[in-house]
Amino acid sequence: MSGSEPSQEPRPVIGLTTYLDRAKFGVWDTRAGLLPARYLDGITTAGGIAVLLPPQPVDAAVAARVLDGVDALVITGGRDLDPAGYGQAPHTETDRPDTARDTWESALLAEALRRRMPVLGICRGAQVLNVALGGTLHQHLPDVIGHSGHRAGDGVFTPKQVQTVAGTRLAGLLGPGSRVQCYHHQAIAEVGAKLVVSARDDDGVIEAIELPGEDFVLAVQWHPEESLDDDLRLFTAIVAAAAGYASARVSR
């Protein structure tokens, strides 16, 4: 091989959290680690390598070992968080808790933040980030805003216009606003420590939060994986942040 050939930086590896739930495929009906393929498509189309991180028994050492193998963490959508984690009794409309996933994602997030690793939260992931930093949630958004327009039901995503907050990382990525796809009946109430709101919708609902500063820690209440044909910017951003993190890690 000629020494004059340019070197190519390896593609960054992004870990995505998953469900652990019942699945049917072929002759099988069993529990499985699951994640809609559109999340993977978002990462790979943006130039990253996607790795699935299914819920499992965890402690700080396990979380650290898992994150040794990735360059960024994406906390994906899914079931409602256990309201006990933010000091509330469950609402009648709140999902039965998935404590294994709650514990798994909380441990991964804590270790990612400790390492200053890039983090992207999507829907449930925004709520995980907010609660981890001491925030709370509205357990049933229709009680707050008077309608169920953020979750139509039956797996149908609702288009919503969001307005970003000037000066935030999200505004730098999306500009002053964007049309997004929503499917959530809960939302951020009290914002966690050090977090800032980076987008709201026309109902005033918080649709994105982030940690200010150099570290890429950003979470959106909507589902960017449902807009891949039109808008890859959030996936491109987390892949680019992961590449920068990987490069800095190698140079240390």
Automatic annotation (TrEMBL):
Superkingdom as given in the UniProt entry: Bacteria
Annotated PROSITE patterns: GATASE_TYPE_1 (PS51273)
Any single Pfam family the record assigns to this protein: Peptidase_C26
SUPFAM superfamilies assigned: Class I glutamine amidotransferase-like
Gene Ontology MF term list: hydrolase activity
Keywords linked to the UniProt accession: Hydrolase
Keyword flag Hydrolase: yes
PANTHER family from the UniProt entry: GLUTAMINE AMIDOTRANSFERASE PB2B2.05-RELATED
Protein name: Gamma-glutamyl-gamma-aminobutyrate hydrolase family protein
Lineage: Bacteria, Bacillati, Actinomycetota, Actinomycetes, Mycobacteriales
